[in-house]
Amino acid sequence: MPILASGTGLLILLYGIYTGRFHTKLTAYAVLLIAATGGIIAFATGEAAEATVKQIREIARNRIEEHEEFATITVVAVIVPGIAALIAIYST
């Protein structure tokens, strides 16, 4: 969900830049902040979910590790635009 929200926020931001509308850009910043918050929450709850999933025998451990690595990359990918959005909000 945070990935989808970040993409949506980026599209809204591009539209806001294209039209020059302040409120559209502000909305994009809010969406990017929500996406970053969701990414942090998803990442933080991942450890508990991992412990639960490891108990299921049908799931290969290498898949869990791949998912964890992708989650780390993803959380950084949604936090960076979130921080940029926060800076943009305070600089306007």
Keywords, please?
4 helices, mainly alpha, about 90 residues
List the helices and strands and how they pair.
Elements: H1 2-19, H2 22-44, H3 46-53, H4 61-91
Helix pairs in contact: 1-2, 2-4
Keywords: Membrane, Transmembrane, Transmembrane helix
Transmembrane segments: 29-49, 70-90
Strand content: under 5%
Largest sheet: none
Overall shape: it is elongated
> What is the succession of H and E elements?
HHHH
Mean pLDDT: 87
Assembly of the depicted chains: single chain
Runs in which pLDDT lies below 50 for 5 or more consecutive residues are none
Radius of gyration: 16 Å
Total domains, how many? Answer: 1
Q: How many E-type strands? A: 0
Number of helices: 4
Explain what you see.
The protein has 92 residues and is mostly helical. It has one domain (2-91). Helices cover 87% and strands 0% of the residues. It has 4 helices and no strands. The chain has helices at residues 2-19, 22-44, 46-53, 61-91. α1 (2-19) packs antiparallel against α2 (22-44). The longest helix has 31 residues, at 61-91. The two termini are 28 Å apart.
